[in-house]
Write a structure and sequence with these properties.
mainly alpha, 77 residues, rod-shaped
Length: 77
């Protein structure tokens, strides 16, 4: 294997590793976001206020309203 082939191989490896690392981080972030949304849905079902849910989860009141609206639509269907 000559130097050029070796460098190309390293570049391919690094590109693939970066892609996989990014995908893993994105998947983790999406999982965390879904977990927080699940907690918010449970708190809403328990009758907690949007202010309380925002304090507990760090979500904005708009996010909480969106979650509540989606849950209402799901419940109606």
């Amino acid at each position: 294997m000559d130097i050029k082939e070796h460098e190309d191989s390293l570049k391919t490896y690094r590109d693939m590793k970066n892609f996989l690392d990014t995908a893993e981080a994105k998947g983790r972030a999406e999982g965390i976001a879904e977990g927080i949304a699940k907690v918010a849905r449970k708190l809403l079902a328990m009758g907690m206020t949007a202010d309380y849910i925002a304090d507990v989860t760090g979500l904005s009141k708009k996010d909480i309203k969106d979650i509540a609206d989606r849950q209402e639509a799901k419940d109606r269907s």
